[in-house]
Amino acid sequence: MIKSHQAVTFSRLENALFRLRAPILVLSLLATLFLAWRASFIEPDTRLERLIPGSHAFVENARDTLGEISAGGSTVVRVAVSRRAGSIYDYDYLLQLQKISDELSLLPGVDTGSLNSLWAPGMLWFAITPEGFESGPIISSDAFDGSPKSLEAIRNNVLRAELVGSYVSIDGHSSLIDFRVLPVNAATGQATDYNLLSHRIDDIRKRFENDDLQIQVIGDIKKVADLVDGFTQIALFFLVAFLITAALLYFYARCVRATLVPLLCSVVAVIWQLGALNLIGANLGVFSVLVPFLVFAIAVSHGVQMINSIAREAAAGASSLDAARISFHRLYRPGLLALISDGIGFAMLFVIDIGAIKDLAMVASIGVALVIFTNLILLPLLMSYIGVGPVGISRSLVKQQADNRLWDAVAHFAEPRPAKLVLAGALVLAAGGFYIGQDLRIGDLDRGAPELRADSRYNLDSNYITDHYSTSTDLMTVFARVPQGQCDTYKTIDIVDRLGWQLRNTPGVQSVDSAAETAKFSRYIGNEGNPKLHAIPRDERVLTRSIERVGGSSVTLDFVAESCRYQAIRLELADHRQETLQGVVAVVRDFALEHNDADIEIVLGSGNAAFEAATNEVIAKAQYETLAYIYAVVALMCLLMFRSLKAVACILLPLALTSVLCQALMTLLGIGVKVATLPVIALGVGIGVDYGIYIYEQLRIHLAEGQPLRLAYRKTLRSTGRAVSFTGVTLAVGVATWIISPIRFQADMGVLLIFMFLWNMVGALVLLPALVHLFRVGGSTREPSLEPVMPGPAVERILPKTQPGQSLNRCA
């Protein structure tokens, strides 16, 4: 039979909320309409500088040496114009190449002076002839008439300029156009719209591609733009996840009202989140675009707990208002604790000095703060009016009777022998996960753009250019900083040459360009091609003239600063994998340690590869530091609420096991820790702590009544445990569709989230009670009697029983 009930005193806040529920709901509706309008203005944030650590030494070196704008992220785009069959030494092909080059040079944001192609006037060939030194453009407009003679001359010029592998493919079927993109459009003074520029490049590609001609495009702005173009697909997957969640929630509750209200409140949280971002002048970053779904998932998790409690109270005979008030009173403390822990934990990501992660932390923190209102306050206020339907109440009664055997079985994990087996299994999993996780890699593990699928257009283009050219878009610049006016001394150039030689022999480095190379080449061709003179002249007067920019070849920028404060060594790397970047950085640092003195300082500086190396170093340091901060915050919040270190251990240890196993899973799947994935590991803690707090709070109440652990846990499972298991499975099924997303980083996040949703659920349902048994947290561990349990709430009622439709008008 149902126990006798005791009255409870509601707080002034609770009384005020339900007394003013109509004005609160009206104001919430108005706020939703306004913020939905503001959310419609949200745009993707494609600023490349948000993907790099702003205070890392490499970035500061670039900023100090080149200035704020130059260091901020000008990027190189490479365009290969290829023939499906036949050589590039064809009249029609070369005319098309000229048109493509001209159109690209006129695009807003393109640094026209940096554009190089076979038609560029600065692209020169050099030769030593009996008549002396000769030079000229690769293609002379005056002499180009399409005749076999002119085409053969172009072929010879390409060979004399040594462009095979750099601007002409090794098989001779394509040639390359490259240019720099300015971070600021000089004509408008506004930041360059990389997404718009990418679309205009695609327009040129569509107009010129035909049965014979193909165009491949690579570069950071193209990669980011392709990710942004996938945002519409991300929205589609979000819709699918929403529909799956709705279907499963209806199957669980069998009540339209109990299905729509938590979904509505969860969507309202997302709308408010996006609208608030727009109000503060922020946008969604490339890697923050999935955060709204995480906020939706967290909101659904808390909403299901509230709906589950309201349905149980309604099944026990409470009116809609009383059921909502009782549920709010019972759940606001654990819910508030869980959400505050989530929000502060997400805010801890601010310690990582990478703009994209800070943006993600801000988006997630705002979203979680809004869930406190929408799902802990707005949801019970709405349900106090509409309540759970008769079918939903009947469903709640049936479930309480039907799943007793299931929860009896799960409750065995609170008994001594099963608890010991669970703890032993957890230790084995933790040891195995830690061992495998030691091989977890930092940064990108594949060439191209790992955020996109291997068969995406960008990665296919990247593979083509990498396979047919000895060039890439992975660039790095090393600076040799000297006192003003000392950039062209023999000592400086000699040091630059020595470092260039070491870098040229470093795995992963494809080319090295510097003033030292220019000086040697200039002296070589100025002395009739005498190989003995392919060296740096010691006479500094000759050296100064030798390092002046020689016509063209592949040089796009001078290596010597106008102020003569530094020399630049420019590298092209084969890829941006961690091993490649670490190898180059180690060579430069070792060389600097040996040669830096009062006259010269070798420092790593600009280039997307340098910035990626800096990002990897920040990520490597931050991954465990951030987790430590998050766990510390969650532990402190749990300690403040439960006033027990044992309680903290019971809630946090299952989360820690999930973190260890998640890193092992990433290792096995070949997913590196980077800007896109580091926050997922941290967010997993926030997603999982909700389960543990709800279960532990309910279990603690039963144990405090002196009930044996197994009986107390069985009652907890029949109320809170049911909602936790449903939420974990539902959210995992919802994100399962992400695995087929064409955007790989969404698919990777889908896999990780499925694992965390399910494993956090398992940890809360199985490992937590075993830990409670281990730590002897309250109650007794003796075997309880298995007297039949009648339908009704699994926890003691806190208000007198009322008839349906009857409301309590006073609070005792």
Automatic annotation (TrEMBL):
It is a multi-pass membrane protein. Its main location: membrane. Residues 260-385 form the SSD domain. The keyword Membrane applies. Keywords: Cell membrane, Membrane, Transmembrane, Transmembrane helix. InterPro entries: MMPL_dom (IPR004869), Mycobact_MmpL (IPR050545), SSD (IPR000731). This is RND transporter.
